[in-house]
Write a structure and sequence with these properties.
By secondary structure, this protein is an alpha/beta fold. The protein is built from nine helices and eleven strands. The protein binds iron/sulfur cluster. The site of iron/sulfur cluster has 13 residues, from loops.
Length: 258
């Protein structure tokens, strides 16, 4: 299990698609997905793998290092990452957004390769979003670059199946919400949580911050998304939150690298 990483930086996959969720939904973006996560979110679904049932999110391949690390690529140099981004750029005539995702990419927050990559991409003029569970504070004193990054703070609610003290880390949320650029909250809810205390949980997490709040239906497949979406849309209307769909799921269902 990769909980916090030293100097190794594992890239799971890269692809060029549209951002499907949150504030920049619809924007063409190059995705760099890094391996490892400090949470497991067993409430988000179950999958059969080699005759075993595994509980967790829809990016198991980026979370379970014991099962998937052989297919992860250990990045030796940031020029490798620059080459990947340039390869996609050569096909287009504009500067795409860069989305750093996982797993939980902030397990690499102190990794010098990871931070050099952020610096390089920011210098080249890309807008960078880090998709994070917001449980790890960026080391802002050591790496000022984090102030230039937008964080999509996907703080987990009780439907993730994680214990509250693991999924809600107030100090990390405060650092990200107040010290970084245009960062926003992005919560995932299912129909049950909407009926129960979803609004209370969100209010408790966001109290004192004026960052935008997006709510998104749980749904790794089109079918699951369709079940949860109307209830979450109504929930947003009732509470003044912004509704976020999952465009990539609507368009490509469970296809990977989308
Ligand atoms: S925090 Fe995100 S990547 Fe990690 S297990 Fe939960 S849903 Fe998956």
């Amino acid at each position: 299990m990769v909980e916090k990483s030293g100097e190794k930086l594992y890239l799971v996959e890269h692809f060029f698609s549209i951002q499907g969720e949150g504030k920049y939904a619809g924007v063409p973006s190059v995705f760099l997905r890094f391996g490892g996560c400090n949470l497991r979110c067993p409430g988000f679904g179950s999958y059969e793998l080699e005759e075993k049932k595994i509980y967790g999110c829809d990016t198991l391949r980026a979370v379970y290092s014991n099962l998937y690390r052989r297919s992860w690529h250990s990045v030796a140099d940031i020029s490798e990452l620059e080459r990947i981004v340039r390869k996609y750029e050569n096909r287009i005539s504009y500067l795409p957004d860069i989305v750093i995702t996982g797993g939980e990419p902030m397990i690499y927050a102190d990794n010098s390769l990871f931070c050099s990559m952020l610096e390089l991409l920011a210098e080249r003029g890309h807008r960078i979003t880090i998709e994070t569970n917001a449980t790890i504070a960026p080391p802002l004193k050591r790496y000022e670059i984090y102030k230039e990054i937008t964080f999509a703070m996907a703080v987990k609610l009780s439907c993730s199946g994680e214990q509250k003290n693991r999924r809600v880390v107030p100090k990390a949320i405060e650092a990200i919400a107040t010290m970084t650029k245009n960062s926003f909250f992005k919560f995932t809810l299912d129909r049950e949580l909407v009926q129960k205390d979803g609004a209370k949980q969100i209010a408790e997490i966001c109290e004192g911050y004026d960052n935008e709040i997006y709510c998104m239906p749980l749904g790794g497949s089109e079918e699951e998304l369709r079940k949860n979406a109307p209830a979450v849309a109504k929930f947003c209307i009732s509470h003044g939150y912004r509704y976020s769909d999952r465009l990539h799921v609507r368009l490509w269902n469970r296809e990977e690298k989308r």
